[in-house]
């Protein structure tokens, strides 16, 4: 049996979280990791108790759904809510984070961003990561089915 790398393991977790997303526009998941431990996770969805895009349709303003909180923000806010430091942590995201999430990631002291898919990669975000010395790396993740075949995932 092939052993899953840490990168693939955390990326798998983000993809699992993405399956909980309630916005139909983009299904995103994010996992925050410190010292190889998962400290928080998030997916893009409405505020707790709010109506879901999947039930009421997206709330579109200027081409964006404003109802949802992005996966990265949700994960960072989960750390804020439960008092978990994010300084020096790493984040695994299914898609390249938007500029708003990029700024939140930097400001939260997160030092590495791993993303599986390119998504409207913002050149300004790249500039900000570079200035903040945040390591950004693409970690492709498309072997969920491969995992199943290896018997690591059942069903
Ligand atoms: Zn939506
Ligand atoms: Zn975002």
UniProtKB/TrEMBL annotation:
<keyword id="KW-0378">Hydrolase</keyword>
<dbReference type="Pfam" id="PF00383">
    <property type="entry name" value="dCMP_cyt_deam_1"/>
</dbReference>
<dbReference type="InterPro" id="IPR013404">
    <property type="entry name" value="Competence_ComEB"/>
</dbReference>
<dbReference type="GO" id="GO:0008270">
    <property type="term" value="F:zinc ion binding"/>
</dbReference>
<dbReference type="InterPro" id="IPR016193">
    <property type="entry name" value="Cytidine_deaminase-like"/>
</dbReference>
<dbReference type="GO" id="GO:0005737">
    <property type="term" value="C:cytoplasm"/>
</dbReference>
<comment type="similarity">
    <text>Belongs to the cytidine and deoxycytidylate deaminase family.</text>
</comment>
<keyword id="KW-0479">Metal-binding</keyword>
<dbReference type="InterPro" id="IPR016192">
    <property type="entry name" value="APOBEC/CMP_deaminase_Zn-bd"/>
</dbReference>
<dbReference type="InterPro" id="IPR015517">
    <property type="entry name" value="dCMP_deaminase-rel"/>
</dbReference>
<feature type="binding site">
    <location>
        <position position="70"/>
    </location>
    <ligand>
        <name>Zn(2+)</name>
    </ligand>
</feature>
<feature type="binding site">
    <location>
        <position position="101"/>
    </location>
    <ligand>
        <name>Zn(2+)</name>
    </ligand>
</feature>
<keyword id="KW-0862">Zinc</keyword>
<protein>
    <recommendedName>
        <fullName>ComE operon protein 2</fullName>
    </recommendedName>
</protein>
<dbReference type="InterPro" id="IPR002125">
    <property type="entry name" value="CMP_dCMP_dom"/>
</dbReference>
<feature type="domain" description="CMP/dCMP-type deaminase">
    <location>
        <begin position="5"/>
        <end position="132"/>
    </location>
</feature>
<dbReference type="GO" id="GO:0004132">
    <property type="term" value="F:dCMP deaminase activity"/>
</dbReference>
<dbReference type="GO" id="GO:0006220">
    <property type="term" value="P:pyrimidine nucleotide metabolic process"/>
</dbReference>
<dbReference type="InterPro" id="IPR035105">
    <property type="entry name" value="Deoxycytidylate_deaminase_dom"/>
</dbReference>
<feature type="binding site">
    <location>
        <position position="98"/>
    </location>
    <ligand>
        <name>Zn(2+)</name>
    </ligand>
</feature>
<feature type="active site" description="Proton donor">
    <location>
        <position position="72"/>
    </location>
</feature>
<dbReference type="InterPro" id="IPR016473">
    <property type="entry name" value="dCMP_deaminase"/>
</dbReference>
């Amino acid at each position: 049996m092939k052993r899953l790398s840490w990168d693939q393991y955390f990326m798998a977790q983000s993809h699992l979280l993405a399956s909980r997303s309630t916005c139909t526009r983009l299904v995103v998941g994010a996992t925050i990791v410190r010292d190889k431990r998962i400290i928080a996770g998030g997916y893009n969805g409405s505020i707790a108790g709010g109506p879901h895009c999947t039930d009421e349709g997206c709330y579109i303003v200027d081409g964006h759904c404003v109802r949802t909180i992005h996966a990265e923000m949700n994960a960072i806010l989960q750390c804020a809510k439960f008092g978990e430091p994010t300084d020096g942590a790493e984040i695994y995201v299914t898609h390249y984070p938007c500029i708003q999430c990029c700024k939140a990631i930097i400001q939260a002291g997160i030092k590495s961003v791993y993303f599986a898919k390119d998504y409207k990669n913002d050149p300004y975000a790249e500039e900000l990561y570079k200035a903040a010395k945040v390591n950004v790396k693409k970690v492709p993740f498309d072997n969920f089915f491969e995992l199943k075949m290896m018997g690591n995932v059942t069903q």
